[in-house]
Amino acid sequence: MKVTVELSGGLELLFDKKKTHTLEFADKDEIPLRDLILYMRDNLLKERAELFVVDNTVRPGILVLINDADWELYDGIEYIVKNGDTIIFISTLHGG
């Protein structure tokens, strides 16, 4: 299974300044979005996990799009990610 993850709004800075990640899971045909988020935290995140994940979901203030649609239209954190999906994380949090 291959999934594209895109990061913007400053989130890419936490992931080694890389905006797009192509993830492959050879042993899976699908993966719960919750597990994908935790995989990203444990394997891709370079710093400050608390700015991305809180209580095993994305931090409030981060918009999540599944194939360009709000994740709330797709069961949110319970969505089952499938081969070819694009998951976009956009931070609306700004420091000051």
Automatic annotation (TrEMBL):
Pathway membership, UniProt: tRNA modification; 5-methoxycarbonylmethyl-2-thiouridine-tRNA biosynthesis
UniProt KW keywords: Cytoplasm, Isopeptide bond, tRNA processing, Ubl conjugation pathway
A GO cellular-component term linked to this record: cytosol
Predominant location: cytoplasm
Pfam families: Urm1 (PF09138)
Cytoplasm listed as a keyword: yes
Function noted in UniProt: Acts as a sulfur carrier required for 2-thiolation of mcm(5)S(2)U at tRNA wobble positions of cytosolic tRNA(Lys), tRNA(Glu) and tRNA(Gln). Serves as sulfur donor in tRNA 2-thiolation reaction by being thiocarboxylated (-COSH) at its C-terminus by the MOCS3/UBA4 homolog. The sulfur is then transferred to tRNA to form 2-thiolation of mcm(5)S(2)U. Also acts as a ubiquitin-like protein (UBL) that is covalently conjugated via an isopeptide bond to lysine residues of target proteins.
Protein name: Ubiquitin-related modifier 1 homolog
Species per Swiss-Prot/TrEMBL record: Polysphondylium violaceum
